[in-house]
Design a protein that fits this description.
Layout lengths: L1 H30 L2 H4 L3 E9 L2 E8 L4 H12 L6 E5 L2 E2 L15 E7 L19 H7 L2 H8 L1 H7 L4 E5 L5 E11 L7 E3 L6 H5 L5 E4 L4 E11 L13 E2 L3 E3 L15 E4 L5 E3 H13 L4 E3 L3 E3 L22 H18 L3 E2 L8 E2 L7 E3 L7 E3 L29 H4 L2 H12 L1 E2 L6 E2 L7 E3 L8 E3 L8 H7 L3
Parallel strand pairs: 1-5
Antiparallel strand pairs: 1-2, 3-4, 3-5, 6-7, 6-11, 7-10, 8-9, 9-10, 12-13, 13-14, 15-16, 17-18, 19-20, 21-22, 23-24
Length: about 475
């Protein structure tokens, strides 16, 4: 009996010690979260070939030499034969990876050199981010000073560019400039010279580099990545760089709301507007159809103060309106070009298709849209004889109603649009006629007229109509 009591007491003591150690272990990790222990680590994806990518979890302070050593273990290669390329530059062994502004899921390229004696060729400066020359060439001395001091300046060191990410972000995001071979698309590409202006980046050919895949000098092709996607694919809609958007180093107030924002749009005339006010400015001009149609730039806007030489050259800045309003902007721009080229827009409600008929043709058919046939001069349904007098537009309201509010809120206007969209006018007397099935041979319902006409041709009924499309 005594032996059993001793054994039980020994078991209880051992279990208590186990619980104490377990609780102490959990308390330690409660005081030191895993997120804090590993917050200084990032994943670097090393692409060694088209079908081999090695993910490495590394601390930000490790050097490129440490990265090569880790990679050599995976590939069973001598460290001396591995070369690492990132953003058009070969990386130095003694430099830490944080000096290259690498973030989570950054992709670098590794190639195998012919031997340990092969010379390391570095064309561009390796310790500054790709594209630094473009930004510094645009900054004044005051902006350089402001960028180097203050919290905003330190945060902006990594965000030299801003892009509009269509998918998946659908908003303005900080962007990263990357480069690849224009011939084969490989990222194992070493630039001979750092880009120094937007022309170097936005076109293919100005800068050259040595492609490690082609083994020869090739033109460089630059592209941008969104920092908010963390390796997520962009599909067929890569981010578009927005050159006018930048960090507000000088804390210049917005010309519209007079508030100071961290990120602003700077027009070529140097006037500053915050992004919210820019959206409101674009939306108001879009509602008024007040965009400027420029021969070289297309449909665009100047500075709100209408400064000379301030037109926005990159139309993707208007993506800030949002997907729906940007599509509306594109439709309005296309319509303005059609009208400027001497074309017409189909007047049938719900269509609006742009058409380019011959200059001496007054009978226009909407072949690309709804098939409506109308008169080019009065934009009414096709008719015989002279155009009838058009309805005069009512003058706008005398007080602050929304534009076109009087018409859009009118019951009679809604009825008129319904009639226009479901009927066609008699070519002789313009009486609205509705077809409810049957053949295409129409007889005007107005007793004083009785004109026989074709529903498709909107012209006088003939044997040709009878043979071609009597029953559609």
């Amino acid at each position: 009996m005594a032996v059993g009591v001793v054994a039980l007491r020994a078991f209880v003591d051992a279990f208590a010690l186990f619980l104490w150690r377990r609780l102490a272990f959990l308390a330690f990790f409660r005081r030191t979260p895993v997120s804090n222990v590993r917050m200084n680590e990032i994943t670097i994806n090393v692409r060694f070939s088209a079908d081999l990518v090695v993910p490495l979890r590394l601390a930000r302070e490790v050097t490129v030499k440490n990265l090569k050593e880790r990679l050599a273990e995976h590939l069973s290669l001598p460290v001396e034969e591995i070369r690492v390329i990132f953003a058009g530059k070969e990386l130095f062994d003694q430099v830490s990876i944080k000096e290259y502004n690498m973030d989570e899921e950054t992709t670098v390229h590794a190639v195998r050199s012919a031997g340990p004696d092969e010379a390391v060729v570095v064309g561009a400066e390796v310790c500054c981010p790709l594209g630094e020359g473009i930004i510094t060439s645009q900054l004044s001395q005051e902006e350089h000073l402001a960028r180097q001091t203050g919290k905003e300046g330190r945060e902006a060191e990594k965000a030299l560019f801003f892009v509009y990410c269509k998918r998946p972000c659908e908003r303005v995001q900080p962007g990263k400039l990357r480069v690849c071979c224009a011939a084969c698309g490989e990222g194992s590409f070493i630039l001979e010279k750092e880009p120094s202006c937007w022309a170097d980046v936005l076109s293919v050919g100005p800068l050259l580099g040595r492609c490690q895949a082609c083994r020869r000098v090739q033109p460089a092709r630059f592209f941008f990545k969104c920092t908010g996607t963390q390796g997520s694919p962009h599909g067929d809609q890569p981010p578009i760089v927005l050159p006018l958007i930048r960090y507000n180093f000088l804390k210049v107030p917005c010309l519209a709301c007079l508030e100071t924002s961290r990120v602003v749009l700077v027009f070529k005339c140097a006037h500053v507007i915050c992004l919210d006010c820019f959206r409101a400015y674009c939306r108001s001009r879009l509602d008024e159809r007040g965009f400027v149609l420029d021969e070289a730039l297309g449909s665009t806007l100047p500075c709100p103060l209408n400064c000379s030489n301030s037109l926005i050259e990159e139309s993707h800045h208007f993506c800030l309106l949002g997907p729906d309003q940007y599509l509306r902007y594109q439709r309005f721009a296309a319509e303005e070009w059609v009208l400027k080229a001497g074309g017409v827009l189909c007047p049938r409600p719900g269509c609006g298709q742009g058409l380019l008929p011959e200059q001496d043709c007054n009978r226009v058919t909407c072949d690309l849209g709804c098939g409506f046939v109308f008169c080019r001069r009065c934009l009414q349904g096709h008719h015989l004889g002279p155009c009838s007098a058009r309805e005069e537009q009512q003058s706008g309201p005398a007080f602050g109603l929304a534009p076109f509010g009087a018409q859009s809120s009118s019951w009679e206007e809604a009825s008129r649009l319904t009639v226009l969209s479901t009927t066609k006018p008699c070519p002789k007397c313009q009486t609205p006629t509705e077809r409810s099935g049957g053949c295409m041979h129409m007889v005007c319902s107005r007793s004083q007229c009785g004109f026989q006409w074709c529903w498709l041709c909107q012209d006088e009924w003939s044997r040709q109509c009878m043979g071609a499309h009597w029953f559609g």
